[in-house]
Design brief:
Structural class: alpha+beta
Largest sheet: 5 strands, antiparallel
Distance between the termini: 95 Å
Helix content: 40-55%
Order of helices and strands: HEEHHHHEEEH
Shape: elongated
Strand content: 25-35%
Number of strands: 5
Strand order of the largest sheet: 2-1-5-4-3
Oligomer: single chain
Radius of gyration: 23 Å
Low-confidence stretches: none
Length: 162
């Protein structure tokens, strides 16, 4: 076998591997973008946002192009009810953000109810690379809970008398 045949075979194999790699990347991206939970990926050292999915854009009202590359602190500055320093401490101590409900207020004054949790993720060498944060909209549930609580407090005497 001459060297030009071997080079052609190697080149064909590299093209095939490249196509397979691209297919896997496309598949992974499709999964991330299809999630109904919001996903935010932040670098551990810099707190820079590396990735957000479509659901996170919808839940936060912020586009990926507006947030990727900025720090979490920059992006969410001015939001109330979002304990970023507590999240950072919890990740440092425990490697995760415990699932909690948050009543948030955006800079524009919008009130949002979100459940937020997170997990540290590692690179192929096992090094702590950053945090995957999952966000879900719990507005309807919390609004119903508040309404029901108010109803019970106003009409609770009816239930106790029966």
């Amino acid at each position: 076998m001459c060297s030009s045949d071997l080079n052609q075979q190697l080149e064909a194999h590299l093209v095939q591997v490249g196509e397979e790699f691209q297919t896997l990347q496309d598949f992974n991206e499709s999964i991330l973008q299809s999630m109904t939970s919001g996903l935010l990926v932040a670098d551990k050292a810099t707190h820079r946002i590396l990735k957000v999915n479509h659901a996170m854009e919808r839940l936060s009202g912020l586009s990926a192009t507006a947030v990727v590359g900025k720090t979490v602190e920059e992006v969410f500055a001015g939001w109330s009810g979002l304990p970023l320093s507590e999240f950072a401490e919890e990740v440092e101590r425990h490697g995760s953000i415990t699932l909690r409900k948050h009543r948030l207020r955006t800079v524009s004054g919008r009130e949002l109810y979100r459940s937020i949790s997170g997990e540290v993720f590692y690179n192929q060498r096992g090094e702590n690379r950053g945090v995957l944060v999952l966000v879900d909209d719990i507005s309807e549930t919390e609004i119903l809970r508040d309404s029901f609580s108010r109803f019970l407090s106003q009409h609770g005497h009816w239930f106790r008398c029966v």
